[in-house]
From TrEMBL:
This is Penicillin-binding protein F. The chain crosses the membrane at residues 21-46. Keywords: Carboxypeptidase, Cell membrane, Cell shape, Cell wall biogenesis/degradation, Glycosyltransferase, Hydrolase, Membrane, Multifunctional enzyme, Peptidoglycan synthesis, Protease, Transferase, Transmembrane, Transmembrane helix. One of its GO terms (cellular component) is outer membrane-bounded periplasmic space. It comes from Halobacillus karajensis. One of its GO terms (molecular function) is peptidoglycan glycosyltransferase activity. InterPro entries: Beta-lactam/transpept-like (IPR012338), Glyco_trans_51 (IPR001264), Glycosyltr_51/Transpeptidase (IPR050396), Lysozyme-like_dom_sf (IPR023346), PBP_transglycosylase (IPR036950), PCN-bd_Tpept (IPR001460). The gene is pbpF. Residues 64-238 form the Glycosyl transferase family domain. PANTHER family: BINDING PROTEIN TRANSPEPTIDASE, PUTATIVE-RELATED, PENICILLIN-BINDING PROTEIN 2A.
Length: 716
């Protein structure tokens, strides 16, 4: 062989292999780039924010009773430590038996799936691991394309590099859909078995593990036979993978499904309260409804479920004031006045989520405002006490000739402050407000949480341009039970984030409205109002103080308090329509609710008088004397001594003034206290005198009606 010839021709041989080598090099480079992209490109597919699952918010009492759940997706995130081994084993056996051995992608499974896809000339089978399913559910669509599958692998490898197997399994179990609106193993466990995942049996865990493949098809509620078949397949896989023994397999496959459907979703008794909780979370803590639906918060509230159920039931079925435009609506709230915590809220007779919550509707307060706009401020001046006399004559006020009327159109000339409040005298309230001044009284309204921009004397009767909500009124009345200290009302005591860290807590806010003496006086008077005055309708055997209000023919109120709670009940129409009744309706219904609460809670029989305050004397009821009579005795020296007598009530405080009729002006000849006899001075045998008696209230100084007259003379 000619060596020189070969060497001479060699460059031409190289030229022949130049392009194939180049192509192979490029292909190898592309393969390397693709491999590295798949291996490390997952961070471009994975969005860390998507790893934070949407989780339901729970509304619960302080002792952990869950009242309602707020969510877009019904999910409760649980730690993998709370999931029993047999439950984890069920999912791993049916979904990914080599979960703890692969690096996120089961390449044997992939090759098998690729082979079947090629044979079928389309995408027919997947080989997704638990990690891949998690990646697909979190970051990708459900399209069966090669590009989507590539991204799924990239994301899976990323997850395996950055998270432990248990962390991946925890995310998977909390993420997957189990049908009927439930997401995650904990919500599914509670939905289908009414228990936490930590309490699931082997068979129950297997049933849940079989659901994600086709939740509707294998629904244990709708298709129990198919659900049992699918469960038994999972149990068989658990046996095949060595997670259960043969005897356990046989036993578990023979059990019933043991599912239990909850009926709580149909109940609406708590809806009004939770609606207010959502509103308060947004207004006070700036957590929106949408954030609550996904944020996984625990909201601890002041609701008393026993009282809330009673109130919701009575508001739904109780007797309401009649109206001209169909059923009249209502609102009710009850507050623990020692803390301000609201224990019950009913925002409508048949309230359900999405309805208008009338607990936040501002309405004219009518006469319920009188203790705060008139009588409390007047006693705070020091110039008035409960037995100060007020005008009760029909009259006009101010330059605009404001002419209020009493609700019964009866007028007594003058009455005590006590009587004016008990009987809800409109004239007296306006007259007194005129005396103390509107601007002065409005200062107390501000402290009571009842501010108003109005400036006229109509404030005394609650005829306001804007009005107040039941929540505002319950705060104000609660202050009277707390020695004049108003506590801000609230439903939320604290909010915890998904890590159980307290992020918000109710701050106690207090405002002094009246001093404790004025508050106690008002409490005693308002008890009389409930027992004998305008709020006497209905039956309640324990301690209750309160006031009614009727605003024209539009709506009616009762507002009051027991030693434990302050409560408000409103009835009326939201817009048009007239009521055909009085405040006896909300008064009766309030007392009925309290009577049922008393049966469950044992409410106090009397208010406890605070230290350092005076009790209010019982008001004096002046008698009408119609049996005045007289007699004469001869004393000698032609002189007579007279005795006049009359019948008196048991009240020994009443003063009796004795008058002798004279030409011109009658003369007071004496007085006695608590006695029914008076001795007339001696007079001549030929003289005669006529006498009468006037009873006097020692508390107010008010005189009663003159008695019948009696003439003393000697009959010869």
């Amino acid at each position: 062989m000619n060596i020189k010839g070969i060497i001479k021709r060699f460059p031409h041989g190289l030229k022949r292999f130049k392009w194939p080598i180049f192509i192979v090099t490029v292909v190898l480079l592309l393969v390397l780039i693709g491999y590295l992209t798949i291996l490390f490109g997952g961070r471009f597919v994975v969005n860390e924010k998507d790893l934070i699952l949407e989780e339901m918010t729970t509304v619960e009492t302080d002792d952990g009773e869950v009242i309602e759940q707020i969510y877009t997706k019904n999910r409760e995130v649980v730690s993998i430590d709370q999931v029993p081994e047999h439950v984890k084993g069920a999912f791993i056996s049916i979904e990914d038996s080599r979960f703890y051995n692969h690096s996120g992608v089961d390449f044997k499974g992939i090759m098998r799936a690729v082979y079947k896809d090629i044979i079928a000339m389309k995408k027919v089978e997947g080989a997704s691991t638990i990690t891949q399913q998690l990646a697909k559910n979190m970051f990708l669509s459900n399209d069966k394309t090669w590009m989507r599958k590539t991204k799924e692998v990239m994301a899976s490898l990323y997850l395996e590099r950055n998270y432990t197997k248990d962390e991946i399994l925890e995310m998977y179990l909390n993420r997957i859909y189990f049908g009927e609106g439930t997401y995650g193993i904990e919500a599914a466990s509670k939905h289908y078995f009414q228990k936490s995942v930590s309490d699931l049996t082997i068979a129950q865990g297997a049933l849940l593990a079989g659901l994600p493949k086709a939740p509707n098809t294998y629904s244990p509620f709708d298709h129990p036979e198919k659900a049992a078949e699918r469960r038994n397949i999972v149990l068989s896989r658990m046996y095949d993978t060595g997670r259960i023994e043969a005897d356990t397999l046989k036993q578990m496959q023979g059990t019933t499904l043991a599912v239990e459907r909850s009926e709580e979703g149909k109940e609406t008794w708590s809806n009004s309260y939770v609606d207010q909780v959502i509103h308060e979370a947004a207004e006070k803590y700036h957590i929106s409804r949408d954030e609550l639906k996904r944020g996984g918060y625990r909201i601890v509230v002041e609701m008393d479920p026993v009282i809330q159920r009673i109130a919701a039931e009575e508001m739904k079925n109780g007797e309401f004031v009649p109206g001209s435009s169909g059923p009249v609506e209502g609102a009710f709230t009850l507050m623990n006045h020692s803390t301000g915590g609201v224990v019950a809220i009913v925002g409508g007779r048949h309230f359900k989520h999405g309805d208008f919550n009338r607990i936040r509707a501002a309405e004219a307060p009518a006469s319920t405002i009188k203790p705060f706009a008139v009588y409390g401020p007047a006693m705070m001046t020091g110039d008035y006490d409960p037995f100060s006399l007020l005008s009760d004559e029909k009259q006009t006020f101010g330059s605009n000739d404001y002419a209020p009327k009493n609700h019964d159109d009866r007028y007594d000339g003058e009455v005590s402050l006590y009587q004016a409040l008990v009987e809800s005298k409109n004239i007296s309230a306006v007259w007194l407000l005129d005396q103390i001044g509107v601007s002065y009284a409005k200062g107390f309204l501000d402290k009571a949480g009842l501010p108003t921009k109005d400036k006229g004397l109509a404030i005394a009767l609650g005829g306001l341009s804007d009005g107040y909500t039941p929540l505002q009124m319950v705060e104000a009345y609660g202050s009277l039970a707390q020695q004049g200290i108003r506590k801000e009302s609230y439903t939320i005591s604290k909010i915890l984030d998904r890590n159980d860290k307290v992020i918000h807590e109710h701050p106690t806010k207090e405002t002094e409205v009246f001093d404790k003496q004025t508050s106690w006086f008002l409490t005693e008077i308002l008890q009389r109002t409930v027992n004998e005055g305008t709020a006497s309708a209905g039956d309640y055997s324990k301690a209750l103080a309160g006031k009614t209000g009727t605003h024209q023919n539009e709506h009616v109120w009762f507002a009051g308090y027991t030693p434990e709670y302050a409560g408000v009940l409103w009835m009326g129409y939201d817009q048009s329509g007239e009521i055909n009744g009085s405040s006896v309706y909300p008064t009766r219904l309030m007392k009925k609710i309290l009577e049922k609460v008393d049966q469950e809670k044992g409410l106090a029989a009397a208010f406890e008088k605070p230290d350092g305050v005076e009790s209010l004397p019982e008001p004096v009821d002046l008698p009408v004397i119609t049996d005045l009579r007289g007699s004469l005795d001869l004393t000698g020296l032609a002189l007579l001594r007279g005795t006049i007598q009359w019948t008196i009530p048991d009240d020994e405080r009443i003063v009796y003034r004795i008058f002798r009729e004279e030409d011109g002006e009658d003369v007071k000849v004496g007085e006695v206290t608590g006695k029914n006899v008076y001795k007339v001075s001696a007079f001549g045998i030929f003289d005669q005198s006529t006498y009468y008696v006037i009873p006097v209230d020692p508390l107010t100084g008010k005189e009663g009606q003159p008695s019948n007259a009696v003439t003393l003379k000697w009959d010869l």
